[in-house]
């Protein structure tokens, strides 16, 4: 392969997103050269991404880089890259729990992890944050089987279930050290259960929280308000200047309407998600478990760990267990997430060779 004129690639739907999966070694080691290549592969910058694999939306302009891991508690490393649609940007500032659903099957199919009989579990280190996850999926006869009867909202049909379990992370669940903060006159709860997320009551922003993503995206006053809150929340959460990043996510909460736990509308950061990301839902679920947090009084909390998070195209079921340490020396301790698990699906769409758009050449005579 000379000059990266062709690259081995697998396109997978992971959860409610779609992305290009690569072995990290098949791409340039230099981040700048790698990102330039990925922009040309995905067809960015262009609002239609007409000359590449991207689907003209952040949810379909994603990349997963997978490699064997040297971490003692992981089999593979997974680096998520969000590729801009109409901007020449490639960001590694966040995880993606949707593409995470495809990492295990991809690792087995590319020979990084041997398949077991029946089911295979792949331990994954998410390089964006250092967090760990374990994905378990069917491998009858020692091969990945993408077919099954598991259904998730936002995806037609059914596929094999991928059970993803997240151990407790090292980051504090409440990164500001408080259950509530007030930003621009709005009460918020800042949580990080694998993804920095800001929880807000939709009614506090003058909306119902049941609007369509298109209606919310057309509300320029709402967009300005959310941007102001997000920039301040980012600093409070220790993320620095988030003006040009996609985190923290902003999740607007309202009482459930379809028998679930809570209704959500999530921004990523200016486009409204047509569903909700896995890690974003993990943040919402953990936040709802905290007494006094924004959304706790809106939610219909069931018995047991499983919560049904409603979103614009259906729901996502997630299991969360949040506890506050007790006993000697724990006075004033903040809640921690002890367990988070979710059932997702993934499906291989194609495996083959992708041909990037040619690199732009410098004009003749340029210095």
UniProtKB/TrEMBL annotation:
<protein>
    <submittedName>
        <fullName>4-oxalomesaconate tautomerase</fullName>
        <ecNumber>5.3.2.8</ecNumber>
    </submittedName>
</protein>
<dbReference type="GO" id="GO:0016853">
    <property type="term" value="F:isomerase activity"/>
</dbReference>
<dbReference type="InterPro" id="IPR047687">
    <property type="entry name" value="OMA_tautomer-like"/>
</dbReference>
<dbReference type="InterPro" id="IPR007400">
    <property type="entry name" value="PrpF-like"/>
</dbReference>
<comment type="similarity">
    <text>Belongs to the PrpF family.</text>
</comment>
<dbReference type="Pfam" id="PF04303">
    <property type="entry name" value="PrpF"/>
</dbReference>
<keyword id="KW-0413">Isomerase</keyword>
